[in-house]
Amino acid sequence: MIKETLTIITSNQGKYKEYREKLGGHYKQVEMADVGYPEIQAEELKEVVEFALEVLSERSPLIIDDSGLFVDSLNGFPGVYSSYVMKTLGCDGILSLMENRKDRGSRFECVIGYLGERKKIFKGISRGTITQEKKGTGGFGYDPIFQPEESEKTYAEMSSNEKNRISHRGRAMEKLLDFVASK
Ligand code: ITT
Predict the structure, then answer these.
(1) Which pTM value belongs to this model?
(2) Which CATH number is 3-181 given?
(3) Which of 50, 102, 160, 173 to pair with 114, CA 20 to 30 A apart?
(4) What confidence tens digit (pLDDT) does each residue in 25-61 have?
(5) Which residues does the annotation mark as catalytic?
(6) Distance, CA of 1 to CA of 31 (rounded, Å)
(7) Distance from the alpha carbon of residue 110 to the mean position of ligand 1, in angstroms
(8) Which residue, judged by its Cα, is nearest atom 18 of ligand 1?
(9) In this predicted model, what pLDDT tens digit does every residue of 102-116 receive, in sequence order?
(10) CB 139, CB 155: distance < 8 Å
(11) Phi-psi region at 139: left, alpha or beta (left = phi > 0; alpha = psi -120 to 50)
(12) Cα dihedral value 98, 127, 163, 32, nearest 10
């Protein structure tokens, strides 16, 4: 089904690439707009997304995406602080915090805020483990240290198509596509 232009509001080229690859066949154009929006500090990703959608309404149809890595043995850290922690500690910082920890379970969450005819939130989760060391050069952010449970590879060792098939973002996008197709 071909629809009009869909705008992905993000500063993150890696995210945009994943959206373009999965949604490109469903829209005439999938474009990126790095226009910035207020990211409130909140307990949950969903609150951040809902607030931002209010502010951006004139660019519809649009997507904003708030994602994070939640590590079980760190009580869900970095979670909603993932962006700040990536800038300050990076993957190496997370690996240091995980040194000598047996429980390496973790999950990525992606919350898509979609504004079309209606406002909708779609959430995707992928579970996996934090690797002992960085592996792979693809992807972005925490991809080199996250191995999803469906694979022997980290996300950074996969193409974006491969990642999209099992990832938090890929799953959230599937829900979005189901919703748009039902319109
Ligand atoms: P925008 O808010 O402009 O979209 P951002 O990079 O700040 O871009 P988030 O706040 O959603 O995006 O992401 C929080 C952090 O988690 C950030 O450092 C990302 O690089 C990282 N991250 C998000 N999704 C990821 C993914 O699929 N794989 C690896 N890291 C990811």
Answers:
(1) 0.93
(2) 3.90.950.10
(3) 160
(4) 999 999 999 887 777 777 788 887 787 877 777 788 9
(5) 66
(6) 17
(7) 9
(8) 83
(9) 999 999 999 999 998
(10) yes
(11) left
(12) -90
